[in-house]
Amino acid sequence: MASFTLHGIPVSRGIAIGRAHILAPAALEVKHYLVANEQIEAEVLRLQNAIATVHEELQTIWSELPKDAPAELGAFIDVHVLILSDPTIALVPLEIIRTRFYNAEWALVTQIDELSAQFDEIEDPYLRERKADIQQVGERVLKVLTGSATSLPNSNDEGVHMIVVAHDISPADMLQFRDRAFAGFITDLGGQNSHTAIVARSLDIPAVVGMFNASAIIAQDDWLIIDGDAGVVIVDPAPLVLAQYRERQAVLQRERKKLGKLKKTPAITRDGTPVTLLANIEFPDDCAAAMDAGASGVGLFRSEFLFMNRAGFVNKLPSEDEQFESYKKAVLAMKGRPVTIRTLDIGADKPIDAVEHTALNPALGLRAIRYCLSEPQIFLVQLRAILRASAFGPIKLLVPMLAHAYEIDQTLNMIAQAKAQLQAANKKFDANIPVGAMIEIPAAALSLPMFVKRLDFLSVGTNDLIQYTLAIDRVDHEVAHLYNPLHPAVLQLLQMTIDAGTKAGIPVSVCGEMAGDTKLTRLLLGMGLREFSMHPAQLLSVKQEILNSDLVRIAPHSKRIMRSYEPEAINQAMLLLRAN
Known about the structure:
By secondary structure, this protein is of the alpha/beta class. It has helices at residues 40-63, 71-85, 87-90, 92-100, 104-120, 125-128, 131-146, 171-178, 195-203, 214-217, 239-259, 287-292, 320-333, 369-374, 376-389, 405-424, 442-445, 449-454, 462-470, 488-504, 521-526, 536-547, 551-563, 567-579; strands spanning 4-7, 9-12, 15-23, 162-166, 182-187, 207-209, 223-227, 232-235, 276-281, 298-302, 339-342, 395-399, 435-439, 457-460, 508-510, 531-534.
């Protein structure tokens, strides 16, 4: 078979070499037939028994979770248990059987498709990709109904690693491969925030997702190379190519061992400039990985996870005490290092809202701070919870998607109101908690004086800033090639933000994907950035780049890039920058 190359979305760096293990979906097509009236309750019972069996499977997997398993895995399994208990899964398919006379598989798939369509309407990419939870839970139930099961490989080749190739893969299934010799993951679906991406990064395993039909093209036991940096998969590589990648892999492994020695080394450039390295987290348990990587704090705690995939979905919001305990857990885990908590960043079309909202373009609709200000009671509950947690350690409060002066003022008024409510209730909190804004809308980057006048710090969300500046959906594969962090407009907006913060004497960090990309580290340093926030797995690689950087030598090349508007000139200057 001739060698060929597939391209996807790189989500976890490194090189993996191994044999393909195809993980087939539970049911690409299920049987569709109508059930006789006298058989309806028997069909209902069949689906109920399948759901109960999956409940037991998930509980067993959770109880046998290895102690060294990433925190994300346990949290994702908890989410799947909640979804399985939700009436939209546990009850609605039963009613479909009773009212439409569908067989159990058909009824379940019908409901899964309906829920998936609702998630497709969600603008926020992190939340939109949570439809995978729904589909993966449905697949586990279908496996029981159809009598199929996830097959695990029995390789007789000593030292040969396997690369899992799947249409999609659930966290529970990933656990089944954890103790086997797997080297990486390839999936047809997914994006930067898919479960495969999150867990692959936490395990530090190369992965490429969003490959459309890789699971159909790649054959069982094909030799594969995953280039996790380029998002490339080479199928049946030529001997010379295989040898070259084995050498690159060996070099990377040696470098990775060296990185472990940098955990306690301060992030200081060669010319003596200190740099702060922070971690992005989704769950309080992620703080363990942040501490282990030597993070100086948490630069972005995405609070949305508390509001997602909850039993009942609709109108089942976390209480103030539940939020408080979660934020407090993160603060205590960081042992005095600051924790930056971003307030609720979801849109009006999210699954937690009981009221139907429609928007011609959800990306430009009622989301993030716009939603919070339109639902003051929900916002006040979260603000009180965050403030209460600030009594147990340093917290910084980060507000997403601000663009107008009155939004900043209303937010500050709401924070003052939450403080007054806590004072009246004799609850302790940090009265001087720093409040900052995410700069992710071009309008915000173009009107920074009103931000630095009112706020204590700025954090650039480069993912959304690039998306809004270039008018593209970064998870839309048809325009993904247009997503370019080195576009002159993006760099100008970023430079303006860093300069405005420096002039005003307030901290500026970058918490988007650019911060964890070592190819961009020296450029960001040359632009004046001194705070980077990224996934914990990326921190040591970025630190190494910082330790090898000299700002005096970087500065001329960075300035040349900022003066350039032609892609070729920018790329040439980037090569010179990385060589210095």
